[in-house]
Specification:
2 domains, 12 strands, SH3 type barrels
Length: 159
């Protein structure tokens, strides 16, 4: 199975090798249950993690100074999908949604989900049209009434 990315290293924090993380999952708990992450062709072992104003600050066993931490900027932290907890009805991993085709409630194909953003007001789907233009739609009913093999969007939300 494919790996699922839970966070990205945003930069160094301090001089002792800690890093700032941008979280893609729901809170610190999603990271603390994992001790080992795939990180750009290497393995990182989580020693500690704490909340930060924009995400989290973490320390990895393999990173001992600021220079090493700075070199991780942009690195994605992933875990094997089979290590993730099962989802409840109506819950989805972003990795399962990104790349899906998007159709309207009348069945017209309109594009592909290219990203899921969260600006602290709930998840938002970024949909790319074939011509390269994009639109953002709230990832909640009634805007997105159905998710399955495709994402169904109410066309009234495609502004």
């Amino acid at each position: 199975m494919a790996d699922v990315t839970l966070a990205a290293v945003a930069g160094a924090h301090g001089i002792t090798g800690e890093v700032r993380l941008k979280l893609f999952a729901q809170g610190l708990e999603s990271l603390t249950v994992h001790k080992v992450f795939s990180a750009g062709g290497r393995t990182l072992t989580l020693k500690s993690i704490r909340p930060d104003k924009i995400g989290a600050v973490a320390r990895f066993a393999e990173i001992g100074d600021r220079t090493q931490a700075e070199n991780l900027r942009g690195t994605l932290l992933s875990v094997p999908r089979e290590t993730l907890p099962p989802l409840a009805e109506g819950e989805y991993y972003h990795a399962d949604i990104i790349g899906l085709s998007v159709v309207t409630t009348s069945g017209d194909a309109i594009g592909t989900v290219t990203a899921i953003e969260n600006f602290n007001a709930g998840d938002i789907l970024e949909i790319s049209y074939p011509d390269g233009k994009t639109v953002m739609v709230p990832f909640r009913a009634p805007a997105v009434p159905t998710v399955g093999d495709v994402v169904v969007v109410d066309p009234e939300w495609l502004v």
